[in-house]
Structure formats: structure tokens, C-alpha cells
Amino acid sequence: MPIETTLLREGRVLLLRYTDPFDGREALANTERYIREVYLPATQPIYSISDFTGVTQVRLNMLNDGLKILRRMPPTAAHLALVTNTPVANGIANTLGQMLAKQNVAIYRSVDAAWAAVDVLLALENNAAAKNGGSAL
User: What is the pTM (predicted TM-score) of this model?
Assistant: First the structure.
């Protein structure tokens, strides 16, 4: 499964684009790498947008694979935006969000909607830091 990964917004947002065929083992291996290279060294929360709109072939173990990935996320993982546009993938994403209530997981129908939410969260973070006399970046 090709996974396109980009770190944006001054290293604060990890954009992941998944395409067919979805391979949970590969996604888990990549997550382990992102945790080591991005999340653990971070001094501020990291937001992520996982775009699954390129995944049309949903496998039965996708829910289990998703749970394994989300359970490994460290405390620096802030808002986790899952973008899906198929009913089955939406159902899996909603189930993941409910099973991991302590994680800040949200489901969006488009990457633009996910970006809008993440940008609001970043702006709120910057405003809070400015009020406290510091900088969020």
C-alpha cells in the first residue's frame, strides 16, 4: 500500500494519504516510525490527518489494524482526523472513535474539512499561548 506522508504547518501536522490496497502491517510499521521520528521528539502536540479516500478495498481486519495503530499513539498526538468517504470505512472510523474515547479522534468527509478543523485547533493553541505571554511555535 503506498502511503504518502508529509509534515506540514512548521512540523505540527502530519498528513498521511493511504491508497489501495490497505495493508495494516505496513501502516503499523509506518506508525511506529512516525512515533519515533515525529511524535516522541515533539515539544508540542502533533495533529494528524489520515486520508483514506484512496482506499476503496476495505478488508475485514481493517478495524483491528486501526485499533493497534491508535493504541500506540503517544501523548503528543493531538487531534487525529480520519478522512473517509465510503460507508464501510466511515463505519470502521466511527467504531474506532467510540472504542478509543480517550483519543481525540474525529471523522471527516473531506480533507478540506479536516484541515479546517486542524487549523482552528492550531489557532486556538496560538491564541492561548499569546495570552500566556509565550509562543506556540
Answer: 0.83
